[in-house]
Each structure stands twice: as structure tokens, then as C-alpha cells.
Design goal:
CATH topology of the largest domain: Formiminotransferase-cyclodeaminase, Chain B, domain 1
Strand content: 15-25%
CATH architecture of the largest domain: 2-Layer Sandwich
Number of domains: 2
Order of helices and strands: EEHEEHEHEHHEEHEEHEHHHH
Distance between the termini: 18 Å
Structural class: alpha+beta
Largest sheet: 7 strands, mixed
Radius of gyration: 20 Å
Number of helices: 11
Number of strands: 11
Length: about 325
């Protein structure tokens, strides 16, 4: 059986199409690797690339993309609402059909050490590839962000896993790792108040100090604003979508928003989403809305798309956003 692996690097560039096109070009140049999506965000000044392929080719594709980003992106000029630690903020490998998390750890280590030796950039391993317990959490690795790197590298507990323990002003640091699939899911509010968005996020994320009836397991959440749309969002990472469905997150955020006098008006998916996640959401909405006739795959996806408001900020095309569809199409096109 072939070993399929996904890689979802996040680059700190959301506006310059020439830079993004060059990163895309070097990924496409690697045989047996399929570029599935490029999802830029101007407000976050960040772009999520999604590509997948055979294990033996994925490390090279990831490294070449990282090499171009390190050459083209200048962190001294970077401004954006999303937390980040460098030009190549994070590069996770995710197991797909026929592969395991151990395969992804192997690739993460290969790529990380090449970043350190060939590009001279420092960084950390996170997730399943973490070298120590406190580095499993991406937020911990990113703490202090780009602006705090110099101070962070003075701490013996935060010396890099690869590369020199020296601040690289142009590229910052990078975080490479292995993890299971997560869904980046942002919910739109009918307010531009970041304070309200942060209060809601604090009540739904899995780790929080405040008591909350709507706190969800395996969920990360922060509040921020999206100036290009004039709204605030609750930005979440659904760490385990079988444990938390998109419906669960939508419902929890909606309840907390209502308590503060605002509403969830829609939402967006950043990157690709597994087919099962939308089918599960569709089934939950069908039950909530007592729509017993909604049964087919097409109907469930349509109901989930409408109920979650996935097309509020920009058009949502299931054929371009569902991982299963996009990967199958990419493979069919290459044959």
C-alpha cells in the first residue's frame, strides 16, 4: 500500500502573489506531490498551503517551499493579526492513507535538520515530533512570537532543536512537526469588537480558567479582528474533529456570543476539510432542524454549508474545499 502524507505549511505572507506563486511552483515541480490548495489571508498576512503525496517525495517538496519562503519573505516588514514566529511559521506533516504518525515524525526530522544545516535557520520540533514535553504544544513553541526570539534563545530551556541559537532577523524561526488532522475553523461575529471575540474564545477553548458550560475538549480558540471585512472572529483549531464536530463548535460559540449580545453570522474554513466533518455537521443540523428528508451526501453538504454560513465572506465550493474531492481530482488529472 502507498504511504500518503499531507503537509500544511503556514507562511507569513498573505498579499504578494509573486512570492506565493513561486512557492507553489517549487511544490508542483516535485514528482508524486500534489498541490491541493493555496489559501491566503490578507488580514492575517498569512497563507496556508496544502499539498499531499507519496512519503518519499514529501520531504523534498516541503524543504523547497521553505527555502523559497526564507529567501522571499522579510519578517522585519511583517504585520498581521495571526500569531507567528517566522517566515515559515509552522510546517506540520499529517498521516493519510497507508501512513502513520511515525512516518510523519521521520519526515519532520529530515526537513528540520535540513532547515538548520542548509538554510542556517533555528527552529523547534512540535506535536508528535517534539523533543520534550513542553514543546508538544504549538502555542508554547510560538510564545513570544517573532519579536521575542532574541530573548527566548537566551533561555536554556528554549534552545533550538535544529539550527544555530542565533536570531535571524529576516526569517525568524520555524516550527516543524507531526500531528493528526485538525480543522482550522473561524466564526464570524456581527461586531468588530476584539474584546468580545476574545471573551467568547476564552469560554469555549479546552484550556481556560473561567467556568463555562460550553467549553469543548481538544479545541484551541482565540479572538481577533479581520479589518478587510470589518468584523471580529473567533478563530479555532479543532484538534480532533471526531471528538468535536463543526456543529459542536458553531453551537458553543453561538451560545456564548448570545450571552454577550452578539451573533455568529457565518464562518469560514481555512485550508481543506475532510468529507466526514461536513457530513457529520450536516447530520447534526438535519436533526436540529428536523429535516428528516436530508440524507444524500450532496444534501448533507449543502445543509452544512448553508447552516454554518461558509459562504459569507467568500464563495465556498465543496469541490475545492473538501480534501477527499480535491485529492482525488488532483490524482485523476495527473494520470
Amino acid at each position: 500500500m502507498s504511504q500518503w502524507i499531507e503537509c500544511v505549511p503556514n507562511f507569513s505572507e498573505g498579499c504578494d502573489e509573486q512570492v506565493l506563486n513561486e512557492i507553489a511552483r517549487v511544490i508542483r515541480a516535485i514528482p508524486e506531490v500534489y498541490l491541493l490548495e493555496v489559501d491566503p489571508g490578507a488580514g492575517a498576512h498569512r497563507t496556508v498551503f496544502t499539498f499531499a503525496g507519496k512519503k518519499n517525495a514529501m520531504a523534498e517538496a516541503a524543504f523547497q517551499a521553505i527555502r523559497v519562503a526564507s529567501e522571499k519573505i522579510d519578517m522585519t516588514q511583517h504585520r498581521g493579526v495571526h500569531p507567528r514566529i517566522g517566515a515559515i511559521d509552522v510546517c506540520p506533516f499529517i498521516p493519510l492513507e497507508g501512513s502513520t504518525i511515525d512516518d510523519c515524525i521521520e519526515l519532520a526530522c529530515q526537513v528540520g535538520h535540513r532547515i538548520g544545516t542548509e538554510l542556517g535557520l533555528p527552529g523547534y520540533f512540535y506535536g508528535a515530533a517534539a523533543s520534550r514535553l513542553e514543546r508538544k504544544n504549538l502555542t508554547s513553541c510560538r510564545s513570544g512570537q517573532y519579536e521575542g526570539i532574541s530573548q527566548k534563545l537566551k533561555n536554556p530551556d528554549w534552545l533550538p532543536d535544529f539550527g544555530p541559537a542565533v536570531f535571524h532577523a529576516k526569517s525568524g524561526m520555524t516550527i516543524v512537526g507531526a500531528r493528526e488532522f485538525l480543522i482550522a475553523y473561524n466564526l464570524n461575529l456581527n461586531t468588530d469588537s476584539v474584546s468580545i471575540a476574545k471573551k467568547i474564545a476564552a469560554k469555549v477553548r479546552s484550556q481556560g480558567k473561567l467556568p463555562s458550560a460550553n467549553r469543548l475538549p481538544a479545541l484551541k480558540a482565540i479572538g481577533w479582528d479581520i479589518p478587510e471585512y470589518g468584523i471580529a472572529q473567533v478563530s479555532t483549531n479543532v484538534i480532533s474533529f471526531p471528538q468535536n464536530s463543526l456543529f459542536d463548535v458553531w453551537l458553543a460559540v453561538s451560545k456564548e456570543a448570545e450571552k454577550l449580545g452578539v451573533q455568529v453570522t457565518g464562518s469560514e474554513l481555512v485550508g481543506l476539510v475532510p468529507l466526514k466533518a461536513l457530513l457529520d455537521a450536516g447530520q447534526s443540523f438535519a436533526k436540529q432542524q428536523e429535516q428528516e428528508a436530508v440524507e444524500t451526501e450532496f444534501e448533507l453538504i449543502a445543509l452544512a454549508t448553508t447552516s454554518l454560513g461558509l459562504g459569507e465572506l467568500r464563495p465556498f465550493d465543496p469541490q475545492k474545499k473538501i480534501l477527499d474531492y480535491v485529492l482525488n481530482q488532483a490524482i485523476a488529472t495527473s494520470l
